[in-house]
Amino acid sequence: MADTRRRVKLYALNADRQWDDRGTGHVSSSFVDKFKGTSLLVRAESDGSLLLESKIHPDTAYQKQQETLIVWSEGENYDLALSFQEKAGCDEIWEKICQVQGKDPSVEITQDIVEESEDERYEDVSDTAPPIELPPCDIGRLEEISELISSCLPSPIRREKLAVALESDNYIKKLIEVFHTCEDLENIDSLHQLYEIFKNIFLLNKNALFEVMFADDTIFDVVGVLEYDPSSPNPKQHREYLRNVSRFKEVIPITNPELVNKIHQTYRVQYIQDAVLPTPSVFEENMLSTLSSFIFFNKVEIVSLLQEEEKFLAELFVQLTDETTDDEKRKDLVLFLKEFCTFSQTLQPQSRETFFKTLLNLGALQALEITLGMDDQTIKSASIDILSYIVDFSPPMVREYVLQQSNPQDDDQLIINIIIEQMICDLDPDLGGAVQLSGILKLLLDPDNMLVTVNKSEKTDFLNFFYKHCMHVLIAPVLANTAGDKPSKEDSQTAQLLGLIMELLTFCVEHHTYHIKNYILHKDLLRRILVLLKSKHTFLVLCAVRFMRKIIGLKDEFYNRYIINGNLVAPVVDAFKRNNGRYNLLDSAILEMFEFIKSEDMKSLGTYVAEMFGKALEKVDYVQTFKSLRLRFEQTQDKLKDRSSLESVSAVLRNNRFRRDARQLDEDEEMWFNEEDEMEDNESMNDSMSRKLDAEFDQIGKMLDKKGRETEEKENLRAVPNKPGSPILNIRKVNSPTSNSAQPLSPTVEVKSPTLTRKVGLVDYPDEDSDDEEEEDDDSSGVPVSKRPRLNT
Q: Are 317 and 340 in contact (CB under 8 A)?
């Protein structure tokens, strides 16, 4: 078993003056050849890798703090710290350091820390200067004492010597005795001087002095001195608050007295830093870094000690989930858990992951399912904070728990649905809790932090689960409020809630393309959301516009067809008209949406908008968007007309030139004879059709080039065989004013039009010999012999 005395955590101070955890391991000291000296070595307890290899230099200043910390600097702006699990291990390493540097192990610091620039070094007194002599500690010398301490602050060496003097003479306790005398005599001037003295002692930034001032028997006196701020007309009541107002509630008995004392001390020191000490100036900010480190390491130690109390945490969650626990007790338990999670923010990522895994294994989320739904606002608010801490650090942990609930008896019991319901039912007029819960939901729904492994896809599994079991709960308020043609509830709180839901839905459209698309198309959700365009709350109208803009921005043709078929741009145009050209955000948002359709050349939507709303929007002349859409639509229509004309010509030409097979000719021939009598009985209709065909031939004639006309004139000399399958020839024969139903069909029937006189042969292209040959083959062999006599009957 590894020696726990040498078990340490290695910390490094980052640029933000925060301690980063570099790992846990075991420390040793040994001679290292490459450094040619004794070095500190820290090897990781997990894999034995080397976390630290630091030579003990004779001139490096090492500080021993809080009996279990050793802090030093390696190079400029690179501070390191070793936090020992046991005091004995710290003492062993400290003795080794002092042995190398030739120092007495009883000192708290091995060297004077020089932090000033090179120029300041020559200006300061040398290390050989005599120690600072403090004046006798009595009321009459307070002003002199204050001036002496103030004069030492600019010089790092003098600060060091002053700190040594204050510590060695037990001077702080003497000053506290003077404070008691002054307070009894109500000597305000002396109390103001004492305030300045103690404030400057804090600025010395020495951990040894903090340990003296924060001891159980002196901390309240130090707080008392700091009540007499000269800038305040009346003394503050800090001691009254700490003793009587703020009370330590031991919701579950803590058996470790060291842990209890550490909690008390940390709370009081944190209070001194936050409420008692004046806000440090820009030049004083770094002079309290040791105080911040003192609080930081205390919190780390508290969290570690609590995690070691397995029975304590287990009992905590048992009582939280126990239905018989009364509300007051449950409130204390939840508040304690919230404070516990707050302290955990001082841990480094690896330690924090272990911390939250411990909580989840003990049933933290099961407990939150109960506490989130309670009526007590304090419990609910603290529960939201706890859930936020967990989700912020590791959304996959919560999603994994959710997927384990994949076979619930009731969807209402799912933690996701509990979160949604609490967001919807938030009683706060400002919806503070709802805003926080919507942020939690967004983190859980964000695919960017979802894991994809070889064996499973968290994104697919979780989103399938969410859209199946939870999405209907989220959109329920939207559907309930948009059942009619306008929103049914228009109060401010409902509008803000719908705004939060719309923000989440817009997020889903952007990030869940497949799942949300199916949901919108099957539920016709966009139509219901566009009802919100009639809301009196402009921000809610903008939410609906933003939702539709996000859909259009995807440029998905499924969405486009859905919008066109449902005529879903109409509500947006109506909202634009109601805005009546006012220069505001709504006007700009709607115009930007149409501008996007135009600039991205979304043909289906652009054509739909121009065709359906072109006239309604043509008067909008302060932007060119609608005119451009209308012009593009008209150009497209012209192209389509030209194309359709050419296609109709080609169709007519093909119908006159090509025959598919003999069977088709027989069917057409039979159809013509069957319809002949009926067509003769309907002369008026035939005349109309004749005029229509004459007009088409007129158009055809105009489009034929000169070469074609010359060729057709030559072809007029040829005898063109009758084509009984040609609809033009058949109809023309029937409609001819001089035709007689009893007259046999001439093999060279002439077709006349007002502008062009030619035979049916005009459809032949004489410059294509193969086509002529094909037509001759058709005339000679394409029609069965049995049909020919029938043509002349």
A: no
Residue 359, burial from CB neighbour count under 10 angstroms (0-12, 13-18, 19+): buried
pLDDT, residue 785, reads: 41
Give the strand pairing for 7-13 and 19-32: antiparallel
**DSSP track, 283-323:** TTGGGGHHHHHHHHHHHHHHHHHHHH-HHHHHHHHHHHH-T
Torsion, Cα of 566, 567, 573, 578 (10° steps): -70
Q: Which residues pair with 69 in a beta bridge?
A: 65, 83
Instruction: List Cβ neighbours of 443 (8 Å cut-off, separation of 6 or more).
Output: 391, 392, 395, 449
Q: What is the pLDDT of residue 698?
A: 56
- HSE at residue 790, side-chain half, CA atoms within 13 A, is 11
Distance between CA atoms of residues 125 and 332, nearest Å: 56
**CA-CA distance, 471 to 448, in Å (whole number)?**
20
3-state SS string over 735-748?
A: HCCCCCCCCCCCCC
Q: What are the residues whose beta carbons fall under 8 Å from the beta carbon of 699, sequence distance 6 or more?
A: 645, 649
At 694, list the tokens.
């004459």
How far separated are the first and last CA of the chain, in Å rounded?
119
Q: 3-class SS at 55?
A: strand
Locus of tokens 């968007």:
625
Residue 621, token pair as written in the block: 């002349």
Answer whether 47's CB lies under 8 Å from 70's CB: no
**Dihedral sign (CA 360, 363, 369, 370):** negative
- Comparing C-alpha atoms, which of 622, 633, 630, 631 is closest to residue 588? 622
Task: Say if CB 194 and CB 181 are below 8 A apart.
Answer: no
Confidence of residue 715 (pLDDT cuts 50, 70, 90): very low
- Residue 284 token pair: 């004083």
DSSP 715: H
In one-letter notation, the amino acid at residue 283 is: F
How far is residue 340 from each of residues 80, 300, 359, measured CA to CA in Å? 26, 11, 11
- Tell me the pLDDT tens digit for each residue of 511-536: 998 899 999 999 999 999 999 999 99
d(CA 515, CA 527): 18
User: Measured on CA atoms in the order 112, 117, 121, 124, is the torsion positive or negative?
Assistant: negative
Does the predicted TM-score (pTM) go above 0.85? Answer: no
